[in-house]
Amino acid sequence: MTLIDGKAIAQQVRNEVREQVAEWVAAGHDAPGLATVLVGDDAASAVYVGNKQKACAEVAIQGFDHRLPVDATEDDVKRLLHELNADPKVSGILLQLPPPKHLDGPKLTEEIAPGKDVDGLTPISTGLLHKNLPGLRPCTPLGCMELLKRHDVDLQGAEAVVVGRSDLVGKPISALLLQANATVTTAHSRTRDLDEVCRRADVLVAAVGVAHLIKGDWVKEGAAVIDVGMNRLDGKLTGDVEFDSAVERAGLITPVPGGVGPLTVAMLLRNTLQAAKDAA
Amino acid sequence: MTLIDGKAIAQQVRNEVREQVAEWVAAGHDAPGLATVLVGDDAASAVYVGNKQKACAEVAIQGFDHRLPVDATEDDVKRLLHELNADPKVSGILLQLPPPKHLDGPKLTEEIAPGKDVDGLTPISTGLLHKNLPGLRPCTPLGCMELLKRHDVDLQGAEAVVVGRSDLVGKPISALLLQANATVTTAHSRTRDLDEVCRRADVLVAAVGVAHLIKGDWVKEGAAVIDVGMNRLDGKLTGDVEFDSAVERAGLITPVPGGVGPLTVAMLLRNTLQAAKDAA
Q: Which residues sit opposite B225 in a β-bridge?
């Protein structure tokens, strides 16, 4: 059994992005720029945005840290997003979700120009993903694929089971696995005999948000297990997979924390660089 | 075993659309309008467009039959599509594919305004489908769902297997089945043990375009089998499923021809009415 070291892989990706940004700038281009937009003063959201800005600085991506007051109107947010759409120094735009309750986050996200949608969550980016057309893909699903790739998991014809069908994770991962030529089953809360469905997986992705839903004996011997879950149980962060028993059967498995999590910001940086290159 | 009568169900749908169009017009609205755009003089395409126009007339949808010469430029097609986008009498626009070789059909389709994309094939419509947001869905996948619905097939938690992953059929059907709460497996040419994968299906959708690829003994006893294939074999139209043997095991099965085929135009009419209502 091999434990997937998400932190180390994320660091590799970040190093690569730093080198590629340096090459890009050395070739005479402006540094890529990431604008984050935070509405209100939610503490957790502020930490996430701070981490993203810090990560930008480390790879020499320009960070633009925009804050709007908690009572900002829909029009205020739209106006800012449109300004950022028009600003050539801004390669990518990230509206930190969720915004205060009086605002519709996903709807506002649609104001972001497709070429700057580095979170990859707008309908147009979703459409480009599912149609296999060039575009920006969502960061966490990209991170899962990166983990599988760095461990040389053969996806061609593999049975992949994705438990969860969120717009953010489950459905885009299913799409990426399908593009990698896996046979993909998307399972969810209404799935009958979820244990049996999981047992057929050569690659098992858990993205439901229910602590320890997936038991160790649901894991096929030798399977690659990617746990996207981030649940708090008895004061500790834990995944959707019962790690202690799953580890006995998996060939490859992500811990929680330290598995998929660190990849999200790394892929955001990579997306920002890609957006800059695509716009050039 | 019940044979699905696609012709009869399509006729029911067309009757319903006709009644709903009449109610819509009686309520003081303009009749919905469908603009078809045919570039060049391909005989088969001309027949398809003719059928669509005839179907419109039967349900009192206004038909606008636009023809461009075989040497029409990309700009010519775009200009026409933009005019139709702006024309309030046109509720839906269908660019007949494929256009002559010098034109990029899918790319041109992207010029159609999302609210008028009655074929449901643009990236934005694809994104709305996969994100489960309101929008126009592609006609053939909608037709498959309609057949299952009219036969009261219980999709909740059912194991659905879709063989094929085209943008036109396989992927959108997988998405619609997932929204109906089926556990959905998308299989394809790289799938290992396709026979075993098919055998687990309560609902089996074949959309590959290979005559008789799916053998009768791959069908689970009592399964609902939807065959989207339209292949020519020994001069006869035939599906992707070996019908004569599958019929012994299926609980419900579409013939080819006369199964899914007739639904496509019926769903196009329904989409056109929906587009008119959404635009009002």
A: B204, B253
